[in-house]
């Protein structure tokens, strides 16, 4: 049976049983978003193939796929399947540090995506291996990190945790101000 593997937000691989050979015909592959079958695309595939990667697809979209064996020997019924691409998983593309004081700074990030359940903000002094974690709701795009040491460089990593369970991270460095002397 025709089925899909390696599904991503923009591609998937189709696999099918060997029905034809190079000599006995070719396949016509038709695919379209289920919600908009008028946007059908057609591709011809050599009879020697039993798999093909479709790419440049839209994220979070269900595709209707039909594989039509064009045989000059036997009639084979078209094989059909439906495949839904994954939500697009973009890592945070910007992490901004602002309002930095001796003991705190403000961290914000973009973009904020519907597919993110929560963000984790990890921070720790450089050099060093002590790391603190702040959990932030997926609808927020900033947080304040407090109780820091003055005049210290911190590595801040923002990790987006997606509904699918995937995680993507981006890091930035932040420096706290010198504390008041005296």
UniProtKB/TrEMBL annotation:
Taxonomic superkingdom: Eukaryota
Major place of residence: secreted
Keyword Glycoprotein included in the entry's annotation: yes
Coiled coil: none
InterPro entries in the cross-refs: ECM_Regulatory_Proteins, FN3_dom, FN3_sf, Ig-like_fold
PROSITE patterns per UniProt: FN3
Ranges where the Fibronectin type-III domain occurs: 1-89, 91-179
Residue ranges crossing the lipid bilayer per the database entry: none
Localization per record: Secreted, Extracellular space
Any single Gene Ontology cellular-component annotation: extracellular region
Protein name as it appears in the record: VWA1 protein
Organism: Eulacestoma nigropectus (wattled ploughbill)
Species classification: Eukaryota, Metazoa, Chordata, Craniata, Vertebrata
């Amino acid at each position: 049976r025709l089925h899909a593997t390696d599904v991503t937000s923009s591609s998937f691989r189709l696999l099918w049983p060997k029905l034809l050979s190079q000599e006995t015909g070719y396949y016509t592959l038709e695919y379209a978003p289920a919600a908009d079958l008028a946007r059908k695309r057609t591709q011809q595939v050599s009879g020697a193939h039993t798999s093909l990667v479709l790419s440049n697809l839209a994220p979070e979209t269900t595709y209707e796929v039909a594989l039509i064996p064009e045989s000059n020997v036997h009639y084979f019924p078209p094989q059909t399947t439906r495949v839904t691409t994954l939500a697009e998983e973009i890592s945070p593309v910007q992490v901004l540090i602002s309002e930095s004081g001796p003991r705190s700074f403000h961290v914000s990030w973009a973009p904020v995506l519907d597919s993110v359940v929560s963000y984790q903000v990890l921070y720790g002094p450089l050099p060093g291996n002590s790391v603190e974690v702040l959990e932030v709701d997926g609808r927020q795009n900033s947080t304040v990190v407090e109780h820091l040491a003055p005049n210290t460089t911190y590595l801040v990593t923002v990790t987006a945790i997606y509904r699918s369970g995937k995680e993507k991270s981006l890091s930035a460095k932040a420096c706290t101000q010198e504390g008041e002397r005296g």
